[in-house]
């Protein structure tokens, strides 16, 4: 995880990500670099965002903290965000950072733009996946037959909100 120091600052306060009907970019942005890849191979890099638990939260201003407010809303359709520069060569991945700055988060259940759909006031964990592409496979339909790894960075957990709840988050 690149820019880990920034993520750590947000994580200490309880990271919040704004979601809007039209879609909003994540801040901080998920940026990763890889090692141990085969320079000759091709890789697809993607991201998804999954619920941390089955709870809904509310922000208690007088305590400056998030509290459980009940059971989670029904989960929304899971979406994978395939990095637009995929497939990468292993050589590219060894030399450059992969940034997910174009990912947009929305609360619009009918989104047609490929944005990641989330419920407001729920906690989420972004995950980065890297898949070693086999020459004979044309699509990602069967992940089981592909070599892949998933990376989870606990400091990137966030609460989806339509407006910042903790004033300190907007001062970083």
Please provide a written account of the structure.
GO terms for molecular function: DNA-binding transcription factor activity, RNA polymerase II-specific; RNA polymerase II cis-regulatory region sequence-specific DNA binding. It is found in: Nucleus. It comes from Tinamus guttatus (White-throated tinamou). Its main location: nucleus. The protein has one domain: Sandwich (Immunoglobulin-like). The strands form four sheets. Strands 1, 4, 7, 8, 12, 13 and 14 form a seven-stranded mixed beta sheet that branches. It has a three-stranded mixed beta sheet with strand order 2-10-11, with no helix packed on it. A hairpin with a 4-residue loop joins strand 5 (55-60) and strand 6 (65-71). It is mainly beta. Helix content is 9%, strand content 36%. The protein is globular and about 55 Å long.
Instruction: Give the number of helices.
Output: 2
Report the CATH topology name: Immunoglobulin-like
Mean pLDDT, to the nearest integer, reads 92
| Sequence stretches where pLDDT stays below 50 over 5 or more residues | none
Supply the number of structural domains: 1
Task: Give the biggest sheet.
Answer: 7 strands, mixed
- Percentage of residues assigned to helices: under 10%
Q: What letter string, H or E per element, gives the SSE order?
A: HEEEEEEEEHEEEEEE
Give the overall shape: globular
Q: Work out the number of β strands.
A: 14
**What percentage of the residues does DSSP assign to strands (E)?**
35-45%
Highest CATH level, the class:
Mainly Beta
User: How far apart are the termini?
Assistant: 19 Å
Give me the CATH superfamily. Answer: Transcription factor, T-box
Please identify the structural class as seen in this structure.
mainly beta
What CATH architecture would you give?
A: Sandwich
How large, in whole angstroms, is the Cα Rg?
17 Å
Protein name: T-box transcription factor TBX20
Organism: Tinamus guttatus (White-throated tinamou)
Domain T-box: 1-172
InterPro entries: p53-like_TF_DNA-bd_sf (IPR008967), T-box_DNA-bd (IPR046360), T-box_sf (IPR036960), TF_T-box (IPR001699), TF_T-box_CS (IPR018186)
